[in-house]
Amino acid sequence: MAVANSLPCIAVIISLTWMVEARIPEIYSCAWQSAYSTFSGESMLPAPWMVLDMEKSIYTFLTVHRWESLNCMKYRLSSLRPVHGRLALKFLNWLIKQPNLELKHVTHIICTTTHILVRARMYNFAKTTLKHMLQLPIGLNSVFGALMETYTVCNSNPAVFDLLIRVCLRDKMVGDAVQTFYLMGLRGLMPSVCTCNMVLGSLVREQKVDMFWSFFKRMLTKGICPNVATFNILLNALCERGKFKNAGFLLRKMEESGVYPTAVTYNTLLNWYCKKGRYKKASELIDSMTSKGVKADVCTYNVLIDNLCRENRSAKGYLLLKRMRRNMVYPNEITYNTLINGFVKEGKIGLAAKVFDEMSSFNLLPNIITYNTLIAGHCRMGNYGEALRLMDCMVSCGLRPNEVTYGALLNGLSKHDEFGSVSSVLERMRMDGVGVGHISYTAMIDGLCKNGMLEEAVQLLDDMLKVSVSPDVVTYSVLINGFFRVGKINNAKEIMCKMYKTGLVPNSILCSTLIYNYCKMGYLEEALHAYAIMNLSGYAADHFTCNVLVATFCRCGRLEEAEYFMDHMNRMGLDPNSVTFDCVINSYGNSGDALKAFSMFDKMKLLGHLPSQFTYGGLLKGLCISGHINEAWKLFRRLCSIPNAVDNVIFNTMLTSTCRSGNLSDAIALINDMVTKDFLPDNFTYTNLITGLCKKGKVVDALLLSGKAIEKKLLSPNPAVYTTLVCGLLKHGHSRAALYIFEEMLSKGVEFDTIAFNVILDQYSRKGKMSEVNDIVSTMKSRNLCFNMATYNILLHGYAMRNAMARCFILYKDMIRNGFLPDKFSWNSLILGYCKSKSFDVAIKILRWITLQGFETDCSTFNVLFSKFCERNEMKKAFDLLKQMNQFSVTPNVDTYNALFNGLIRTSDFDKAHRLLQALLESGSVPTSKQYITLINGMCRVGNIKGALKLQDEMKALGVCPHNVAMSATVRGLAHSRKIENAIWVFDLMLEMQIIPTVATFTTLMHVYCKKAKVAKALELRSTMERCHLKLDVVAYSVLISGLCANGDIEAAFKLYEEMKQRDLWPNTSIYIVLLDSLCAGNYHTESEKLLRDIQAREMVSFNSYGGTKRLNELLIIARKKLINLRFKMKMPGVYGKTPFLRDAALANRYCRNLLFLKLQEKFRKSTALVLQGVKHSKVFAYSMLPHDVVSKHQDLMTTDSEDMSRM
């Protein structure tokens, strides 16, 4: 019986002895105290935590692998020594309260007590004493030394140093923990592998990678054998740094070393594979896990389900839940919460509710997270009744709604503009005792801001402060973002001031928000200021923020600063990514600097960034805009051979270039190629083609294309297309047609945004049609479209050009009231308006004031005044302004020098003009050939031949133009100044030097000879031209024909006229009038009839019949009168083929509309058929005629216009 009673005790002792050898002090303590109680018969009741640890120990014994190996182990019993830990602790507490104790004595007593507590297995109290000792001002080395001094005296064990390491880790003193480890090694002591694992885990969390691997190597050196937990930490560290290949290798080595991976090991790898999108590796790992006999647990499935839900594949996650149950793995609350959250995020609130019901049916109680997720989902969908029902259900289950619950309700109500229900929710919160905190207020303010109710949002912020609820940075961020969204910067700054007054400082998110919004609105300096605040506050900018700044630098044309900022990113340890390079490459491409774009592309490749379609698009744009079309086509063909390098944007870029060059057939071929490569033309493709046609003046083609494409539903009606058409019509004089299309589109419900209205406003404003501008502004207001900065600037410039300063002042006040700060364009318009009204003093005062106030100004602002002063020949004021410009550190640009140069030329101050060109050279710019030629002409006019020749040599040295152009300019200047002998001398010198003069030079000398009735000399010059392989132009023929007619040689003049036609040169009105004058004076029946037929063929005049000689002479006189009239009313050559454009505005509009709807219909039929033929095969679009309703609307216009044309 006694033996039977002692068997459990013996089993406990055996177990305890084995555990002692395994060095698990907590279990050792609990079990030995239990054994002592059993053998001694004393009633020693252990503390509750000791009982709990003992139960865990017994459970560990019963579930340990290789249980049978216990029979082969040798056991030994250790005698117990009584250790009075509690008494020692009481003594310590009494002692440290005594006065006048030296720090050395206190340290010694605490160390001794710590050893006693460790021996007594009172580890929690030991940790407290160690923490107290670490807080003493003696340093870690002294603490460790004191512990070692008392170590042998107290007959302690190494567990005290394990505890010291753990205390350091718990207090986030990872460096001290590692140092303790090294100090232990120097004394021949080793911490347990569990303690080492804790150190490794802390190093991973602290991102101290180098220290982590150094510590692990020292572990191995000291002979500390890693266990499964160690390998799990190593795998996690490798995966966190993206070294999955090394992690796989470590997993294999782990198995080879006899350390078998557990489910935790596989779950660690699986989690990282899913996070990084390595789904193939994750699948292989699951297969490996199954083949190794490691059963997937609930954590494994949770990792997979969570990843699927993050990827918006919650339905797949639900199927995995079903599979999980089939495999007898029971899901927990986390599983269901993940699925419910996934379905809610995807907007599938019905499926989320179904999963919620299933959760309840499996006896899993939903927690507050579950309810909050569902309530938030219903509120997002506007199902407030269901959300309130869930809240009642939540209360009935014993769960109390918290601030998050009510915050979701308030957020949903605010977003859906249900502000009437907000007050009832707030009342319920007060009844439930849930305080309305800053989160709830923030949700309501956010809703008000998103609905444009900014005044109410500010009032709610004030109410929040009145009830002593302190807003946080997020609250202020929401308001600031709301004001930025509508462009009210001043109001946003006021909110910032309020935030600073409360003692809050911007966090990284608010700084990023400020930078983004400032950049979006073009306030780069303000954005840089916010970036400086961000850096000074210790926040590191991420790639998004830096890329926004780089993109804004590029958008403002400050590309050098963008590159400097990229260097700054490198210095800050944030390497520019592919998006950064794409922004700069695209901007260089847009500016036409292909060389710089390719230079950045080379840097991008050197850093290992892969180019994208956006990168290639920027390079192509650079080549196209800079005029290197052949190189662009070569690059395009090379890209077509690279997989996934070409997309619609690339094709559209090439299409833009092709349309700009006017190659319609190439454009159609490109669209065919686009369709062949399975890229369907999009809206941008059609808009691109329409824009190209409008820019080339082919407005009718554009109208035909857009009308038929929309009719065939190949092009969706959008503001961009109609804006392009309206602007094209306006640019080419069809104002009534443009207004008709614009009104027609408005009546059809096409939603023009503010940008589209701005484009149309700009065109009307440039044309000076301010009444139409006012009508469009009224339309914008009726459609509740807010003005942006560009709208105000367009209107200011338009009214300033009309000298309507009262309207400008009203606009300025309205702009300030709406929170817009005037930019340089606004100030330029105001200064221009005052200059137009001749209030130059006021303009100068405004310029000084804005410069002193720190507003953004540049050369363009000063150039407005420069141009006006120079136009009025007030050069002294202009140069005084130049001095002020230098005082304000604004560097003059080319336009500044051009304005001053033109003014000096007008005032005949050629010496100062020459010095100005020298200053332009010193500033790094090269004067144009036109400026030099103008100056040469001026010097020749005043007789400064030496100065003119000096300028000629200067032009040659600078390479401004070829040497023959420079010398030709001197010849023409001398000729215009009536220095004929000098001009001929320089001309002959050019021929002797085998320098070929320009056609204009020959023409000038011919004109001189003809005026002096030396036609033979002029004809000799014509022969010289032909020997120099130069062809006569229309002006040269006009000079010679006029000279021959004046000399009475009509036959020779008519021969030149016929020769001119054979060379496809169309005579101008001057030639016709000269020939008609000569023919009227003589009897040239055949020549007269032929000339009249030519004039009639060109639709200048019309005759029914020619009749006899008398009738022919009458027709010659009539034709001459009509041509003289047309010389003042018509501008040659025309836009469409050889059709003239009228100078008179009213006649021009009628004439163009007549061409648009009647005469050009037949003329464009061939080009239309060409387009149809080219695109029919590719099924891109087809068009033939304007829509019927458009033609019918213009019947009245066509009738009146045809009458006007007949009168003309």
UniProtKB/TrEMBL annotation:
Gene3D superfamilies in UniProt: Tetratricopeptide repeat domain (1.25.40.10)
PPR repeats: 192-226, 227-261, 262-296, 297-331, 332-366, 367-401, 402-436, 437-471, 472-506, 507-541, 542-576, 577-611, 647-681, 682-717, 718-752, 753-787, 788-822, 823-857, 858-892, 893-927, 928-962, 998-1032, 1033-1067
Superkingdom as given in the UniProt entry: Eukaryota
Pfam family, one: PPR_2
Signal peptide residues on this chain, from the entry's feature table: 1-22
UniProt KW S-adenosyl-L-methionine keyword: no
SUPFAM superfamilies: HCP-like
Keywords: Repeat, Signal
Listed InterPro entries: PPR_rpt, TPR-like_helical_dom_sf
Entry's family note: Belongs to the PPR family. P subfamily.
Alphabetical list of PANTHER family matching this protein: OS03G0856100 PROTEIN, PENTACOTRIPEPTIDE-REPEAT REGION OF PRORP DOMAIN-CONTAINING PROTEIN
NCBIfam families: PPR (TIGR00756)
Name listed for the protein in its UniProt record: Pentatricopeptide repeat-containing protein
Species: Sphenostylis stenocarpa
Taxonomic path: Eukaryota, Viridiplantae, Streptophyta, Embryophyta, Tracheophyta
